[in-house]
Amino acid sequence: MDPRHASTETAASGQALRALRAARPAPFWLDAAAAPAPRPALTGADTCDLAVVGAGFTGLWTALLAKEQDPGADVVVIDAGVVAGQATGRNGGICMASLTHGYAQGAELFAAENARLVELGNENLAAIDKTVRELGIDCGWEASGELEIASSPWQVDDLRELYEQHAAAGIPSTWLDGGELRAEIKSPTYHAGFWHHDAAIVDPARLAWGLARACEERGVRIYERTPVSSLDRAAGGVELRAPWGSLRAGRAVLATNAFRPLLKRLRFHVVPVYDYALMTEPLSAAQLDAIGWSRRQALSDAGYLFHYYRLTEDQRILWGGWDAVYYRGRRILAEYEDRPDLFAKLAGHFFQTFPQLEGLSFTHRWAGVIDTCSRFCQFWGTAFDGRVSYALGYTGAGVAATRFGARVALDLVHGRSTELTEMDFVRSRPLPFPPEPLLFPMIEFTRRSTENAELHGGRRNAWLRGLDRFGLGFDS
Ligand SMILES: Cc1cc2nc3c(=O)[nH]c(=O)nc-3n(C[C@H](O)[C@H](O)[C@H](O)COP(=O)(O)OP(=O)(O)OC[C@H]3O[C@@H](n4cnc5c(N)ncnc54)[C@H](O)[C@@H]3O)c2cc1C
């Protein structure tokens, strides 16, 4: 039996629950002294050249790049909550060059363009690195790469094939067999790994706060606690309405991720999926010594259900993933963020991976919503005769890809025809998901089938094989 079964069944027992006892229900990155002071809400009537809805990475990069392209443009960013309050301030901070939720997905969906997509992804990651340095954003940026791990024997062959694809595509990569991997990072669950060097780790909230500050220094106005309820045509552009005010804009970019889209046509293209994460207390020197991991790579499992994990600047371990949960009716509710059963399962898996850390406690537990789409990577489009564009669908891999999303959304909203806007990657769309009441049982069945495949030697049932044939599925 796969040992992760046992932890699912006995998740509520012993060590996992003890370790969770003091965990605060708060996203670790947002629970920080560096959090900026609140910004005003939009009240009354305002105008601007470019309105950006959403102050996560997509919205902030859009505003910053818009000011780079045209310093005189009057740009306003509006968020229903606060800057980086949603996925952007809650994620694993694993910043991957891939624009397509991994190399394999790009190779499968955009074979003819994938080599170029790899180059564009590398350029995008390098541009983020450069921005961090030039703007002096103190966000713990470390270009340590990502190590994908086969944590069950059945994953080794597929992982090896993926490594060979990366190497053939010129992505700097290193293969580690079981012994080499366990010498690098000490876990009894590791069978093999492959380290691709095109990734960094970052404190995502501090990166976003730094981007917001840079936007404001360039004249961008940011309104917080301002949920936009409607978007309509208006003379010379569009009008956005919010509870206490309205904004008339020449053009608008929608960067609303998993939240109810302002354009009806998008309602079936993304579903909000909850992803859960834990943060440990800082490890002592002896505990760090017991796990190795001195090169501080981002880590993730190679299975169908996977954990992602990384060290922080103050030597904690962020540990997230495995269950990706869709709640009936596309609902997003604060109460879904606290799932003791899922946190106990995650904690159980953590101690299976690092049994030598017995006694370590978690200080934070939280969740965030990702914008899953059926092709697992971002898509774009325009509305209102090209005066509005959007970038959505990152499906849990948007820390770096959002900058590229913003770049393309700006090209589209300004009606520019560029190399990027002509790519099939940008012009094509994912298939929509079905409406409720079909959607919930369909996703639940897919999720359970995936968990079964994961825990039974990777054997995918007919349903999953059918989805695979059409390049479809449900992922995080
Ligand atoms: C737990 C978790 C772990 C993750 N780990 C990783 C990782 O390690 N690596 C990785 O690459 N990706 C990861 N991701 C995904 C990544 O965080 C996202 O892809 C990325 O942050 C998306 O940024 P965004 O700006 O598009 O969305 P968001 O950060 O969600 O921002 C959207 C904003 O729009 C606002 N908004 C929505 N509707 C309205 C409206 N009507 N009016 C006003 N404002 C509105 C929201 O308040 C929100 O602030 C993770 C996500 C989660 C939740």
How would you briefly describe this protein structure?
The chain is an alpha/beta fold and 476 residues long. 33% of the residues lie in helices and 23% in strands. A hairpin with a 5-residue loop joins strand 15 and strand 16.
What does this structure look like?
The protein is of the alpha/beta class and 476 residues long. It is 33% helix and 23% strand. The chain has 15 helices and 19 strands. A 9-stranded mixed β-sheet has the order 1-17-13-16-15-14-5-7-6, sandwiched between helices. Strands 2, 3, 9, 10, 11, 12, 18 and 19 form an 8-stranded mixed β-sheet that branches. A two-stranded antiparallel ribbon has the order 4-8. α2 crosses α11. The longest helix has 21 residues. It is globular and about 65 Å long. It starts with a helix and ends in a 7-residue tail after the last helix. It binds flavin-adenine dinucleotide. The site of flavin-adenine dinucleotide has 41 residues, from α3, α4, β4, β13 and β17.
Question: How far is it from the N-terminal to the C-terminal residue, by CA?
Answer: 25 Å
| Main sheet overview | 9 strands, mixed
Coarse structural class: alpha/beta
Instruction: Report the count of strand segments.
Output: 19
What ranges have pLDDT less than 50 throughout 5 or more consecutive residues?
none
State the helicity in percent bands.
25-40%
Classify the oligomer: single chain
Gyration radius over CA: 22 Å
Q: What ligand molecules are bound, each kind once?
A: flavin-adenine dinucleotide
- Helical segment tally? 15
